[in-house]
Amino acid sequence: MRTVINNPKKVTLFVQCLVDGLYPEIGEAMLKIFRKLDLAVDCPTDQTCCGQPAFNAGYRREARVAAERFIRIFEKAEVVVCPSGSCVHMVRRHYPDLFRDSPDWRRRAVALGVKTFELTQFLVDVMEVEDHGGRFDGRITLHDSCQALRALGISAQPRRLIAKIAGAEFIEMRESERCCGFGGSFSVKYPEISTAMVDDKVHDIIATGADAVVGVDISCLMNIQGRLSRMKSPVRVLHIAQLLAGR
Amino acid sequence: MSQIRTERYKTEARKAIKDRVLQSALSSVQDRLGKGTAKAYRELPEGPGLRRTAHDMRMQAVENLDLLLETLADNIGKNGGRVIFADDAQAAVTACIDIARKHEVRQVVKGKSMVTEEIGLNPALQAAGIEVTETDLGEYIIQLAGESPSHIIAPAIHKTREQVGRLFAEKLGISYTDDPPTLTRTARKALRQKFLTADMGISGCNLACAETGHITTVSNEGNIRMATTLPRVHVAFMGMERVTARLEDHDILFRLLSRGAAAQHLAGYISYIGGPRQTGQMDGPEDFYLIIIDNGRSKILADTEFREILCCIRCAACLNVCPVYGKIGGHAYGFAYSGPVGAVVTPLLVGIERAKDLFLGETLCGACKDACPVDIDLPRMLLALRARLTRGGVDRPTEGGITAEKVFYRAWSAAIRNRRIYTGLMRTARMAQRPFTGVDGMIHHLPFPFDGWTRSRDLKPLTSKFFTERWNKSRLVNDDNPT
């Protein structure tokens, strides 16, 4: 698939607040992948958050503060890559919305959105590389994160990447597209509903006999992992970056 | 207005999740219809892009509602029918009772109509001494049970055959059976009597046609056709947005409605009613009335952010794919409209503050938008409702406290703006989490308000060295040192 970015030389890493604070190994896996592709990498260390939590909770003024800062930090990049579909969706779809009444900011937001990519989309559609030398001995299943899937159309890309993982057997889970029940603060404010939803997801994962469940968004995976851990399940939870980098 | 129970969202959701019977029924409906609808869209001869065409068609009608309603009323008048514009629920109900009194109505048969649920019609008629019998099998069942519908199209999905068997044994005096054909025949026999003796038939309206002066009713049981043809008076209720300009619009809209509602290519019975029996016609009521209801819709129409919800044709396709509805069922939404459409339209009709759990209590997964036959952007409006809630001078905090939450996000935005403050807070959190971290390296318990997570899930703790800290420290760019 042709995108506006062709043969980039340098990637700017939009690391995601959750990866920065809880799952730095995902960031490191991404570096390994980029290094293998001979890409120079930059990571602006004053980045904080794209503003999605505030936006989803209805606090648009606060979200806008985060958005303006984000744009200032990233707009000079050649291409921006992020391990999260929901964060990229925030930038691409909701930033222009936030700046509806400020044409200049809106223009800057749109220009940035066009060169901001979720990881699998970047690897498959921009770099056009599917085999990154990853290896996994066992069964893998994939959870389709809602924003990545429905907002960004990401579905084939992770599957094509998984298909090139040496030693892995891929099994589709029943209703891989069904929401895992995270939904941001929903998971804490409506815990019984959230838990009922993640229980369905976990049930479908376990039914595949998979050794690991893989996803493209750590927020979903954090929710799924949290439930699997409480259930003392041996099923591992991996972000696609970790799978590609060989953990 | 019907009783509003939107404040019971969390309580009813909790109950529904524990109800195994309901869970099984919801799974089964979503499995069958949710998937069936997606397939039915793919099979459209015009392709799935037809949904966008239908969207534009509905928006155009909504944006010209004043003209369409005037034209519709004129044409119905020309056919001998009478149109009443009702500002609110009370006006609509009063109009119906007045009509009933005028025509000495004692018994009413009724087709399923969500707008009549909305206005609380049945209890009002019954209080006025008029007997009302629902003729849709699902509505009949819940009427006998004294309950409210839990799904827009399949009102009794929460009931098992055993429950219906016991209900019929008790209320209809038959010996207990849970055999569906036998139960259906019993209902049919009981209802047949009601059809024949009813003085008035009440229906909703799926889509009126301004150009020809018709209302339409849609069913798979044929009950609405019978309920509106046999009795001598027919009163139809219509939400004011349910009208199209041209008859040809119905081709696209009904094909999509049927796919959205029941994964059918076209419903079993689609009836066009233009007025009372005309001279020389064999069938039909002597009098026809159409009550067009506002009840808050003109306010929605005036609001450009939410006007789009008036495109809805009440097919329930969104219910059939919603993962939240699939767990909590229809009663949790506390009003006539449940599922994703209910999460948007109910707060707009009954009050954003009062019904806030409906639009806060879901995950914005977007499955509803993909399933909607007229491509309504429900997630956009859910987000817009959340923004309205925080902006609109809310002064009544709940649980974690909207006010406390506002303070939290103000503090958050200060931290976001300044990496040093952000890192400082994260480091503090990293220290504070130590007593909560178990030997397995996971957090098993957190204090309020985060205990919602840890009651059922573990949580990975903040890492000892943030990624950005590692980057700064070891300068990983083009570094040959593997990490």
Provide a descriptive summary of the structure in words.
The complex is a heterodimer of chains A (247) and B (483). Chain A has 247 residues and is α/β, with parallel strands linked by helices. Chain A has two domains: 116 residues, 3-Layer(aba) Sandwich (Rossmann fold), CATH 3.40.50; 113 residues, Rossmann fold, CATH 3.40.50. Helices cover 51% and strands 14% of the residues of chain A. In chain A, the strands form two sheets. Chain A has a four-stranded parallel beta sheet, sandwiched between helices. Chain A has a four-stranded parallel beta sheet with strand order 6-5-7-8, sandwiched between helices. In chain A, helix 7 crosses helix 9. The mean pLDDT of chain A is 96. Chain B is globular. Chain B folds into three domains: 294 residues, Rossmann fold; 29 residues; 51 residues, no CATH class. The longest helix of chain B has 23 residues. The interface between A and B is large, with 67 and 69 residues.
